[in-house]
Design brief:
Layout (H helix, E strand, L loop, with lengths): L1 E3 L11 H14 L7 E4 L5 E5 L13 H7 L14 H12 L3 H8 L10 H28 L4
Antiparallel strand pairs: 1-2, 2-3
Helix pairs in contact: 1-3, 1-5, 3-5, 4-5
Length: 149
């Protein structure tokens, strides 16, 4: 594995354009920061994941007030133009299909040792659910402008 900070550097290799679309969706939905993309040296620089990154616009220091302030605004840290249109549309459909219960089932797995209250996790799930529609629309807009099928 090698860490690459340039999001588009290896986009054209080994179906990375398809792999990047779900990451763009997750990044926008969950307000990702500090991108560190991991590529496999032994597999044509295929993007397999990201290192750790920070989430919710502030890593471990996010607050509900911060998230409410962002609301449904775009979180445009990543260029969607490097991803394939088909993968962007598929990701948009998947995000559109998320229910509040789907998101709560994920936020509900946060360990109690992380000092996040149940109320905060429920509110976080609600904020993410409200963000989802805008994220899906932004992915569709990116797909319409993508140069890659």
């Amino acid at each position: 594995m090698v860490e690459v900070d340039d999001w588009g550097l290896h986009a054209g290799r080994d179906h990375n354009r398809d792999r990047q679309a779900p990451i763009i969706g997750l990044w926008d939905l969950c307000l990702g920061e500090d991108p560190q993309w991991l590529h496999r040296l032994d597999d044509d620089m295929s993007m397999s994941t990201f290192d750790h990154g920070l989430w919710f616009g502030g890593g471990a220091n996010w607050t509900l007030d911060d998230l409410r302030a962002v609301g449904t605004r775009p979180w445009d840290d990543l260029d969607g133009g490097v991803a394939s249109a088909a993968a962007l549309l598929e990701t948009a459909d998947r995000i559109d299909a998320l229910t509040l219960n789907d998101i709560r089932s994920v936020t509900g797995t946060v360990p109690v040792e992380w000092d996040t209250t149940q109320r905060e996790l429920l509110e976080l799930a609600s904020i993410l659910f409200v963000r989802a529609e805008g994220v899906a629309q932004r992915l569709r807009t990116a797909a319409a402008h993508s140069r890659f099928a």
